[in-house]
Specification:
The structure is a homodimer. Chain A is mainly α. The first copy, chain A, has nine helices and no strands. Chain A binds a DNA duplex through residues 1, 4-7, 10, 31-33, 41-45, 47-48, 52-53.
DNA sequence: GCGTAACCTTACGCACGAGTAGGTAAGGTG
DNA sequence: CACCTTACCTACTCGTGCGTAAGGTTACGC
């Protein structure tokens, strides 16, 4: 109607629309018709450019994931101390989520429960968990702790921390007034103080 | 064909089947036909006893939630020290998840992403978060800390801990060889050692 | 200016699955 | 034994939404 636009532009518009609709409705309840309408284009164009509904969702997921990863990577200084790396990473992470509440709250949560995409998401999550586990292991080595630890221990711990971060990201997504910086501080506090105490050999016993 | 069974029995069979199918396929991909088939009964019976698909799912959710709550409540001794209450609660929680991997992994994760049920689940979650926040506040009061804290701080912290626990529950659901007791120990360690250090006034600074 | 390739549309086919109509048989109760 | 209530079935209707066929229109190279 208004203008004929080049493919790359339309594709981004479609992805924007798709993210918005998927996030509002959930994967199944979202209809290709609505996505097309929100994108201001007709349905066959969506199929022509981005493929089937599954492929479209995957494309959304990958775009958002890439952006998130890049945002975090951009915030981190690889030469800094482990705790500062963590701090910078968390700041970038929560800032991103705060700015993309839609994208976060639903794409990641959504993908998790849809069997076809769960694997994809799980793989990304695993990469993050491994990075965090690496940081922990680095800090552990520096602390010259006298206890022994297995790789699985770091992994499980990292797993828990990532879960906590995701949970706080949800909190953030729901509390419009919460400052992402503040959320990052909360997280940093209990992660690092807790981890630090643990690494120094303090253990809880029944 | 085989036997005519009383209503209550059939209802439980149907719920069992529904949980299994919902967990395997996800809410939308699960068909009422398959649920009926797994339950060894015809579809109209499901409608007659448990109502529409939404109502059926809700019934599953509520049954599982109730069981979980009861399992945890049964494990906790209300007169014990806060850390022991937490320990007992966590043990019961992970034991339950370990024994009901199906129910957990999918019902809760599933419900979260389906708009019609998200509210229900969110309410349950909030109740748990508040209990944990209460425990933290109790411990805080006992520690006679000299810093000030707001209710929101405890809530956010509890939120993060619950997220971490859920994350470890997923880990447990995926690692058939992991012992629930061990998972509970992991959790207890970093929650309590971390919280303890925090409550004693140790704070991380940039 | 004219072909052709890229952009874009309307209008459909078709499968799948929620929910129902209408009917059969079992087993208890008088 | 007549009855009625409860358990149970087969066989449909019908909406919804994915994916596509077939055709129109604008821009750009030559």
């Amino acid at each position: 109607m208004l203008k004929r636009l080049p493919r790359v532009v339309r594709e981004q518009q479609m992805l924007d629309a798709a993210v918005k609709v998927f996030s509002r409705r959930g994967f199944h309840a979202a209809s290709m018709d609505e996505i097309a309408e929100v994108a201001g284009i007709s349905k066959p164009m969506v199929y022509a450019y981005l493929g089937t509904k599954d492929e479209l969702f995957l494309a959304c997921l990958q775009r958002e994931a890439t952006r998130l990863m890049e945002a975090v990577a951009a915030g981190v200084v690889p030469t800094a101390r482990p705790d500062e790396q963590l701090w910078n990473g968390l700041r970038a992470f929560f800032a991103f989520v705060g700015a993309h509440r839609d994208g976060w709250q639903v794409l990641y949560r959504q993908a998790r429960s849809e069997p076809p995409f769960a694997a994809e998401l799980s793989a990304m999550r695993t990469r993050i968990v491994e990075v965090v586990a690496g940081l922990l292991e680095g800090a552990w080595a520096q602390a010259e702790a006298n206890r022994t630890a297995v790789a699985d221990d770091f992994l499980a711990m990292a797993f828990a921390y990532v879960g906590a971060a995701e949970s706080l990201a949800d909190w953030l997504a729901d509390h419009a007034d919460e400052d992402p910086e503040h959320t990052a501080t909360r997280m940093m506090n209990f992660v690092w103080v807790g981890a630090d105490a643990l690494l120094q050999g303090r253990v809880w016993r029944a």
